[in-house]
Design goal:
GO molecular function, one term: DNA binding
Organism: Hydrogenoanaerobacterium saccharovorans
Number of strands: 7
Order of helices and strands: HEEHEEHHEEEH
Keywords: Activator, DNA-binding, Repressor, Sporulation, Transcription, Transcription regulation
Radius of gyration: 18 Å
Structural class: alpha+beta
Helix content: 25-40%
Protein name: AbrB family transcriptional regulator, stage V sporulation protein T
Shape: elongated
CATH class of the largest domain: Alpha Beta
Number of domains: 2
CATH superfamily of the largest domain: GAF domain
Length: 180
């Protein structure tokens, strides 16, 4: 665990302010759920809660099915990190941060599909030179929880209606799973 050197006092209502620098670095936004852990040494640990992270085994199986059905590498992520990958080596993407461009698409609740060569490419994961073919936000109980996508192949393939529909159905299905 890293020491930051920042000290905050608890107010009379039991609240503590998480400094802006830490919120920005850890991508903690207003309204984000946090899990609270304690240990025997008296430490209190705040961790961003990922509802999709709770479904990580299920998400891995679902990514595998998507890859087999669609023929493209499939990726499922929460709002911050990749949590499931199929069709490419997992170590390449698993646990990596999503890109600001994908974050923006999720935040705006937009779908993305590469349908022409003139269109801008979406690099969904920071530091990885791969591009999305189709991406859709996962929405549960009115909140964006993550995204599901196919990655484009090396052949310059454009998204077809079948891939777009498959990813949209996957996003809706995962959203429903999280509501239950």
């Amino acid at each position: 665990m890293k020491a930051t050197g920042i000290v905050r006092r608890i107010d009379d209502l039991g609240r503590v302010v998480i400094p802006k620098e830490i919120r920005r670095t850890m991508r903690i936004r207003e309204g984000d759920p946090l899990e609270i852990y304690t240990d025997n040494d008296g430490e209190v640990i705040f961790k961003k809660y990922s509802p999709i992270g709770e479904l990580s085994n299920f998400a891995s199986q679902y990514a595998e099915v998507l890859h087999k059905a669609g023929g493209f590498p499939a990726v499922i992520c929460d709002r911050d990190h990749v949590i499931a990958v199929s069709g490419i080596p997992k170590k390449e993407l698993l646990e990596r941060r999503v890109s600001p461009a994908l974050e923006e698409i999720m935040e705006q609740r937009r779908n993305y599909a590469m349908i022409s060569k003139e269109q801008g490419k979406l690099q969904p994961v920071e530091g990885v030179d791969r591009y999305a073919l189709v991406a859709a936000p996962i929405i549960a109980a009115g909140d964006v929880c993550g995204s599901v996508m196919f990655l484009a192949g090396d052949t310059g393939t454009m998204a077809e209606e079948s891939e777009i529909k498959l990813i949209n159905a996957a996003a809706m299905f995962l959203g429903r799973q999280m509501e239950e």
